[in-house]
Amino acid sequence: MRFRDLHFRDRPLVLPNAWDFASGAALVQAGFPAIGTTSLGVAAAAGKPDATGGTREETLALARALSRLPVPVTVDVEGGFSDRAADVAGLVAELASLGIAGINLEDGRPDGTLAPLDHQTAVIAAVKRAAPGVFLNARTDTFWLGVPDREETLRRARAFAAAGADGVFVPGIVEDADIRAVLEAAGVPLNVLYLPGRTEYSRLARLGVHRVSTGSLLFRTALQATVAAALDVTGEDGSRPAPSYGDVQRLVGDR
């Protein structure tokens, strides 16, 4: 089944996000029909902070490795690792040559702002010209940056779809009314980030969401389990919550 087709089944596609070949292979063995990557996991595993555009080579190396898997793979390329549309398009064309089925391309910038809309739509259009067969999941950080903005989200969702995006990703969106509004406005598959206790899978399915991603959750849970197992050897109590996204960023940044 083609990756695009997985977005149009009776229930949302659950897309778990891997950070290395072993985690990807384990998720395939568990039966998931497609996998993605997590930029936080890829960056932190390399000792680098996430969302700063510094992991282009690590992202490409992981894509080459994951392309060996027998399921579609979609790769988080952050903002494309360049401000030049031609560079981003070239990167995605290279990923397509490896057999990568999709990408996430975000409009959030390292300084906490959003890329200008005309710039982002130009990048999306350039990518689709260079790699038309790659499923481009256009991410907007209108909710993720901490000040939810429904109207700007709808404006960007419409513009991204018009520029050629195959899907729209709005991490941080939670409320039913917001989700319904984006579904209606975008006209392309909607991806929602799974947030424990806030975005229940059954509710997202009822709303008509097409794809549910785990983001960095699996990577952060793996860190939690690693520390717990090590402490268990010493006889200490290893029970503690999984580190947050910010915790991992600080862990890497402190080194």
TrEMBL record:
Which species is listed as the source?
A: Actinomadura chokoriensis
Q: Which InterPro entries match?
A: ICL/PEPM (IPR039556), Pyrv/PenolPyrv_kinase-like_dom (IPR015813), Pyrv_kinase-like_dom_sf (IPR040442)
Q: What is this protein called?
A: Isocitrate lyase/phosphoenolpyruvate mutase family protein
- Provide the residue span(s) of the region labelled Disordered: 235-255
| Gene3D superfamilies in UniProt | Phosphoenolpyruvate-binding domains
Instruction: Provide the alphabetized UniProt keywords.
Output: Lyase
Keyword Acetylation, does the record have it? no
Mind listing the GO molecular function terms for this protein?
lyase activity
Does the keyword field hold Secreted? no
